[in-house]
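Please, structure for the following, as tokens.
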Amino acid sequence: MRKTALGMAVASMMLLWGCSGNEQRPSSDSGAGKENAKLEPVTLSFYSKLTPDEFDNYIVQHVKKKFPHVTLKQVEQKTAKMQDLITTGNVPDIIWEGSTNLQTLTPLKVMADLRPFAEKHKFDFGKYRDGLVDTVKAYSESGQLHFLPFNVFEFALHYNKDVFNKFGIPFPKDHMTWDDAAALANKMNRVDNGVQYVGMRPPLSTNRTQMQLSLPYVDPKTGKASLQTEGWKRLFETIRSTYPGPSTVRSFFDYRDEFLKQRTVGMLPDILLLQNSVMADYEKEGLDWDVVTYPVFADKPKVGAGLFSDGMVISAGSKHADLAFQIIAFLSTDPEVQLHATRDGRVTGLKDPQLLARAFENNPSAKNKNLKQISTLNFPATYPMNDYDRRGLVVVESKLKSYVAGKGDVNTLLREAEEQLDKDIAAQKLQ
């Protein structure tokens, strides 16, 4: 175990926190609101990246109704770093985080295992979409469950109708493979009146395809990098096929701008843009667009990009851990809470088809869009994750840029990536 100043601070704070997390509180079943009204007022801190308006809209108003004795105090991520909060003994009771960022919290020893609380309150994990809970557990060291989702991010293959119509090419269809999409894109890779059109930009982060193929960066048995595999070779070749030829890889913000603003890209595989862009503004500027399901691999015909989710963690040292679990369980699964968020585009992680059918109801840009099949793809099979994955992503993307630029063959670049990641793992172990 590596010993750092931060690690010592964490250990010290755990002693100060003590073992008061299993306080006896009524469960958050029907009637809990009436019982809680008789309880002493309590304030819980809630660390989040939500704006104050979002925090009030999606979190506070619902919690106040269900748990009237509870006051939530928001600690904004932009004003406080988790490491500083640990050092000063001010770790929040509840932490809002993205699922793919859970590994940044693991070394801090700040996340409580939710399984004992779930067992106590007879929490039903079967409410979630198939594979979601297994994916969350894969982020832990020994199968712990540290996270409950508030919403999941849907993925789609966006397309510009005008680009397709310009070249007389049929629109894409649901359930296309990556090979299908690349072949369709190649028909649009051309210069027209001095303007370069590109049929498809690549998946905007390598981890989306890596998760879709369930590719580990590190062999869990040896602790060594595991990148010289047929799976990684397939990933490199698939992403290169989305480019019109040797290319300089630019940021995904550039690629989004090409699709949304310049409108010179036929297709964009990405997080469904209704979730993070004001599509009505682009429509007013002339963007005519729609979506189909995210491309899949031929041998994994119903497997999507993986779990990308915003959700909640309980601090391991919270004095109100039991109550905090009741709150996040309520926010994660209550039909009213989840319908409110889902209609706004924060799509539920529950597998309730009636909830999913109402996704994006409040977004005018969703009207008449082909959204019925978007949530039908499954989460990929889990694979061993560890603390070196984030470094693995950096190393892989560096070599992938070289491959797309035509600066090396795939076997050599994967060997170099594996050697580099092994060096980085060894260095990290010494820290």
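The two ends are 10 Å apart (CA to CA). The beta strands are 42-48, 70-76, 94-98, 148-152, 155-160, 190-192, 195-200, 265-271, 289-293, 309-314.
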